Here is the input.
Amino acid sequence: MIREIGIGLAGFGTVGAGVFLNLEKNRALLRERIGRDLIVRKIAVKDPSKKRPVSLPPALLAANWRELLDDPAVQVVVELMGGIEEPRELILEAIRRGKIVVTGNKALLAEHGAEIFQLATEKRVPVFYEAAVAGGIPIIKAVREAFVANHFLRVRGIINGTSNYILTRMAESGLDFASALAEAQAAGYAEADPTLDVNGWDAGHKAIILASLAYGFWVPSKDVLVEGIESITPGDIRFAAQLGYTIKLLGFIDACLDGSVEVSVQPSLVPDENILASVRGVFNAIAVRGDVVGDALFYGRGAGQDPTASSVISDLADAAVALEAPRDSFGFIPHALYGKLRPADEVVSPFYLRLGVDDKPGVLARIAGVLGEAGIGISSVIQPETNEGELAALVLMIHDAPRGRVLSALQKIRALDCVHGDPALYRVEAAA
Ligand code: NDP
Ligand code: HSE
Here is the structure.
């Protein structure tokens, strides 16, 4: 007799339904590979009366996630509700009751990971979260297990599918921001509140999780520099292309020479020869550099029903094994190799600066003067032609400089009477 593993699904939206459907679709294969049968015993939703694209036996539905905790036939709780407070309560209580947890909730882990994994370790109950970073790409397993032999020198990546989808559609099809976002929402890529996708915070949460695995400590979200894609204009995309770059929202998780760690998310100009520049649509890519393995690249669908379900089911397979085999690791091992976050203003990089200026002689010299006084060099300038009386766009590529120094110079530049409107300042990534 094959052993049954009882699963309680909290959430039956894009991902929850994907898990249910794919467990059914590949049941025989999973049975052969895992040697156990993964059976969904209960599904908690917010509104059980809601009409759903996937029909379910009514007996499976529960109106309250607490029913999953109370059901002795549920051994593994899968949290796919989204949000913070209720999932936190659910996960902590599941751990207390000895039920293994699987979650895809990056916002929750980034804010409360320390608390959750401390309890998980205390109670010796594993928490799995492969779906929390980069959808279908098994990056958590890779960083935590496959690269255990490595100090991480850096992790860079495109880790939000929605924003990459929007930037790709804007660049390749000339779609406006709102229409591209609507497409991403319709495809099930975006968060319930898509603000987190476009303001960079969904990627920020994932960067915090990756940093916790790579460097062994939880970075407080309030200290992380996170910028989104809302202010990127079609003009920026065109200017970047003219200069040989593609604009991407990049996560930076880098060990610095002084032992501190940079964790940030910033719109960045990626040179076209850098492989990350060619990552299109909902795809994510994460470039990992370890001191033993060297460079490794992970590429795949970063959001959506099936890719994310693939990661959740991989966690379920691990959970099924963990139910019988005692473990020493419960999801996160603190090692605090680099216990300090590098202030974002100290991070040195080249920059792209776009300004709105009067189309008059001497304007470039005044701006270059402010940068020069701050010891900031310009590597190239483009100023497209404008019609008489129109504001001109002035695009400057700035050599390596600390971000804080560039921001102070920018403040002085904005105070010049020849500079108007909001400037754009984006980081420029290296070729490799
Ligand atoms: P959806 O909004 O599509 O689904 C959420 C589900 O949770 C719905 O079924 C909803 O019920 C249920 N729910 C919400 N609140 C409660 C509650 N208080 N009690 C019981 N059920 C509740 O979200 P997704 O499936 O897109 O995302 C789920 C999680 O997975 C999120 O944490 C998200 O960040 C993460 N994730 C999503 C990915 C994606 O591509 N979509 C990829 C990776 C991770 P009802 O159906 O009745 O409204
Ligand atoms: N909203 C997220 C994204 C889902 O677009 O990447 C995957 O985590």
Observations:
- The chain has a mean pLDDT of 96.
- Residues 10-16, 44-47, 50, 65, 80-82, 86, 104-105, 131, 135, 188-189, 191-192, 303-304, 308 surround NDP (ligand 1) (CB under 6 Å).
